[in-house]
Design goal:
10-stranded mixed sheet; 12 strands; Rossmann fold; single chain; 2 domains; alpha/beta
Length: 262
């Protein structure tokens, strides 16, 4: 597995932030070099962004996380639901499977031409794939869960079309069978930050499984594939020790950039 480079991490993180409606004023310039298509739900909310440059082979597919009461309620329905992924099937979180089937339409179409997300996404990506481009799927929170599901599906339908998958604060997606059959473990980076409670969800650790390589950002370090119980205990210890660690000189040095704006 190749390492995720810093500039890639920063770009993907900002693009995930831009999936939410309150971020464009701060990061709009990041979108300037890209051509863009958007997939929109029946309420007119941007749910997926497809970004590419003519002279680059990478297409970035960005999935928005939960937005609104209905999305959050769906996340809390931890029931396993059967899903067919081309040549195999397994059980995944009901709320994330639901998202794959939501009617959406392209920013170049109208709501009357809406299709289920999975079908529409493949249709929109096809002209770009025909040009030899490859696809990076990214997302935050439930958007990350949907990203891994759709990346796996797309890899099954178009072999070697997926370049990488990067998620931020992603909950676990599916059963042990999902974990065993997932095609992109070696191309998937799951970013967790300190004690992000969503990354421990759903609260059934031996039924719902994470996929890919975990990169845990904690105490100014990156830990790889730290077991869940160890991550929780380290986070708890860090929280209890925080009043003391704030006295360390490295904390003062880390905040030096504040004086550039003073």
């Amino acid at each position: 597995m190749k390492k995720l480079k810093r500039y890639q991490y920063e770009r993907y993180a900002i693009l995930c932030q831009l999936a939410y409606p309150d971020a464009e004023a701060h990061y709009q310039k990041v979108l300037t070099p890209f051509h863009e298509r958007q997939l929109v739900d029946k309420y007119g909310r941007k749910s997926v962004r497809i970004l590419w440059m003519e002279d680059k082979k990478e297409v970035i597919v960005v999935f928005r996380g939960s937005l609104g009461v209905k999305d959050w309620l769906a996340n809390l329905i931890f029931l396993p639901a059967k899903i067919q992924q081309v040549d195999c099937h397994f059980h995944v979180h009901w709320g994330f499977r639901r998202f794959l089937n939501l009617p959406m339409y392209s920013s170049t179409k109208t709501i009357d031409e809406a299709l289920p997300l999975r079908e529409l996404l493949c249709k929109v990506l096809e002209p770009l794939r025909a040009k030899g481009k490859r696809f990076t799927f990214i997302g935050h929170s439930s958007g990350g869960a949907v990203a891994v599901l759709l990346a796996d599906y797309y890899e099954r339908t178009h072999k070697k079309a997926v370049k990488r998958v990067v998620t931020f604060g992603q909950p676990a997606v599916g059963s042990r069978a999902w974990y065993k059959n997932y095609l992109l473990h070696h191309k998937t980076y799951r970013i967790c930050c300190d004690l992000d409670i969503v990354t421990f969800m759903p609260p059934f650790p031996f039924y719902f499984w994470h996929v890919g390589k975990m990169l845990w950002l904690h105490d100014d370090q990156i830990y790889e594939n730290t077991p869940t119980h160890e991550r929780f205990l380290k986070s708890l210890q860090s929280w209890l020790m925080r009043p003391i660690t704030y006295h360390y000189m490295r904390k003062y040095i880390r905040n030096k950039s504040l004086f550039d704006e003073h």
